[in-house]
Task: structure prediction
Amino acid sequence: MSARARIRAGDPGAFEELFDDYAKAVYNHAFRLTGDWSAAEDLMALTFLEAWRLRRRIDGEGGSLRPWLLGIATNVARNARRSARRHEAALARMPRGEPVPDFADEVVGRIDDAGRLAAVREAYGRLRRQEQDVFALCVWAGLDHAEAAQALGVPVGTVKSRLSRARRKLAEYAEPPPAARQVVGDRGPDKEEIR
Amino acid sequence: MTWPERDLPEGRHRLLKEFVMNEIDAKPRRRVLRPAVLAPALALAVAAVAAPLLLGGGTPAHAVASNPDGTLTITIAQAKDPDGLESTLRSMGVNAVVDYIPTGKRCATQPRGDFLPREEVRNPADGRPFFIWPPTEPGYVIDPGAVKPGQTAVLEFSVSADERVAGIWVGLSTGPVAPCDLIDSDQAPLGPPQS
Result:
């Protein structure tokens, strides 16, 4: 039985493998949607709770479930209040992150990421909602047109036209994306590799 | 406008996975513990019911049933007597330690024993795991044949405020098992933390 079929049938073992395979992708997509690494953790966990709830909608045949998960994450971020209400009890039990010591390399990296994201989010925020969703999935998460269409449940042509509009508007609104910024005392571009 | 993808902070992947798996595991179990559902299912599937702890109204707080294939089905209607369940399992030949972990707590001593890797927690005769996924309803199915002489099965159940089981973790220890002295915790309640 395929992983898709096992998840659809409610196999927790298959779902655990799905989490291992795609938690990182969902987490990073969630960061790009929220601009906050801590919120991205919550959004990632909520996305998987929603994925389990919606597992019977998975087609038995098909490729990677990454587009499906990123689509759910996009919807969860878009409807954060409703998602939080649906999983209110679970959220109360969600383990909180450990405080990270000041000046840790990871914190420097996170601030830098957040700073870079803030610069483009200013322009991104001026896009229409549907354009934002397509842009986040196609440009930031790297889905192709067909995958983004699957994730959002819209035709491929719609994805293409929304993406085209989003690119045109961003070119009008935004400065060119900044080069990798340096933080005083940082160790250079290698910081991106710090885990 | 792209960034190298980041991993979750150290330990958070496992913690959030455990949270998600506990949450999705808890939902169907809460549903099937209603006596109207529990009783006929038990009558069909169970060969014998050993030493159930009866609550005031006559509903068993827990029960352990022997199945024709040698496995045992544990049902917990009310998580209030871990020692009783442990005693029941021992009387049925399973060298077990059972603990109920309330929300917001975990066992102070970690790891509690010298646990085998998950792939070794199996019945040597047929390769069946000690704890059998996916859970069949009702209850948790374990294979006593996976517990070899000298080993101890540790079963930790996370328990909600209304004394319902929300999740389970199992392990086989090849040595002594530390008692579970509960401490306040905002981490995942079950099993040893990631080293």
User: Anything to note?
Assistant: The radius of gyration of chain A is 18 Å. Chain A has a mean pLDDT of 76.
